[in-house]
């Protein structure tokens, strides 16, 4: 293979990245929140497209193919990807007992106690807990927490990441195909210069793929497992005043 042939093929891959990223960007809109990198290489795209009409046609077909795949994913994606996060404050009779009960609840619901901190002791103690359970079990967890004491505040946030997940899947597919083509070029490199150029581009694309995959996997975990932030407090009757003391006062008053 001639040197120019390999270089032009390499440039075509970079150019395709620009067109593909533009098409996918239109699909994602504001849903991607800047977490996924775009393709920004191909400084010779206009020159190559003008010099090789067949290449320009192929680039357009590649971009159209990726757009069609993303649209297909949108149509077939019937389940929304929702991240649910709960915040609950509960007033309990005994904080230590409440902490133990919530830890047991998390285990029973196939979840886990991710963190906990307890301040103070006895009636003056407070606790903060972070619990993760399967999304389908979050409502059960909250209903069970309601029985532990008086819920003073409760809210559930729902973040829809459906568009971002679809966008990430499309970008990942595009990068995987691009990497496969680069590996084909790598095996056909006719000189050291060609090999170095292909390996450099391949390294860049693989790094982008790892970043996109990590983001996709993170969102998937957040959707599958809901998080509950729980605060436990115990109402005291006042500093230095115990229920037994108040009970004694009441009994003494009634005896008069």
Describe the model:
The chain has 256 residues and is an alpha+beta fold. The protein folds into two domains: 3-78 and 162-223, Ferritin; 82-160 and 225-236, Alpha-Beta Plaits (2-Layer Sandwich), CATH 3.30.70. It has helices spanning 3-28, 45-51, 53-76, 95-108, 138-146, 162-188, 192-224, 243-255; strands at 82-91, 112-119, 126-134, 150-160, 225-233. The chain has a five-stranded mixed beta sheet. The longest helix has 33 residues, at 192-224. The protein is elongated and about 80 Å long.
Strands, helices and their partners?
Layout: H1 3-28, H2 45-51, H3 53-76, E1 82-91, H4 95-108, E2 112-119, E3 126-134, H5 138-146, E4 150-160, H6 162-188, H7 192-224, E5 225-233, H8 243-255
Helix pairs in contact: 1-3, 1-6, 1-7, 2-3, 3-6, 6-7
Give descriptors for this structure.
single chain, 256 residues, Ferritin, Alpha-Beta Plaits, 5-stranded mixed sheet, 5 strands, 18% strand
Number of DSSP E strands: 5
Name of the CATH first level of the largest domain: Mainly Alpha
Instruction: Name the helicity range.
Output: 55-70%
What proportion of the residues form beta strands (DSSP E)? 15-25%
Instruction: Give the number of helices.
Output: 8
Q: Looking at the structure, what is the overall shape?
A: elongated
Low-confidence stretches: 13-78, 237-250
Q: CATH fold name of the largest domain, please?
A: Ferritin
By secondary-structure content and strand pairing, the structural class works out as alpha+beta
Q: State the domain count.
A: 2
Give the termini separation: 111 Å
Largest sheet features: 5 strands, mixed
Radius of gyration: 29 Å
Instruction: Kindly report the spatial arrangement of strands forming the biggest sheet.
Output: 2-3-5-1-4
In round numbers, the mean pLDDT is 74
CATH architecture classification of the largest domain: Up-down Bundle
Order of helices and strands: HHHEHEEHEHHEH
């Amino acid at each position: 293979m001639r040197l120019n042939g390999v270089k032009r093929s390499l440039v075509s891959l970079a150019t395709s990245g620009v067109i593909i990223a533009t098409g996918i960007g239109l699909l994602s809109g504001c849903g991607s929140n800047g977490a996924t990198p775009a393709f920004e290489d191909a400084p010779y795209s206009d020159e190559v497209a003008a010099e090789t009409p067949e290449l320009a046609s192929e680039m357009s077909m590649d971009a159209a193919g990726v757009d069609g795949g993303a649209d297909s994913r949108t149509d077939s994606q019937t389940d929304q990807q929702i991240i649910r996060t709960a915040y609950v404050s509960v007033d309990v009779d005994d904080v230590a007992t409440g902490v133990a009960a919530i830890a047991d609840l998390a285990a029973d619901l196939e979840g886990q106690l991710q963190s906990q901190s307890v301040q103070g002791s006895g009636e003056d103690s407070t606790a903060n807990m972070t619990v993760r359970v399967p999304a389908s079990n979050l409502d059960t967890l909250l209903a069970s927490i309601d029985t532990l004491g008086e819920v003073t505040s409760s809210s559930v946030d729902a973040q829809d990441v459906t568009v971002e997940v679809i966008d990430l899947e499309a970008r990942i597919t595009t990068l995987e195909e691009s990497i496969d083509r680069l590996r084909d070029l790598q095996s056909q490199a006719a000189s050291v210069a060609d090999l170095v150029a292909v390996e450099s581009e391949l390294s860049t694309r693989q790094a982008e793929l790892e970043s996109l995959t990590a983001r996709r996997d993170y969102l998937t975990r957040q959707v599958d497992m809901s998080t509950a932030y729980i605060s436990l407090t115990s109402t005291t009757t006042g500093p230095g005043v115990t229920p037994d003391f108040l009970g004694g006062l009441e009994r003494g008053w009634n005896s008069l």
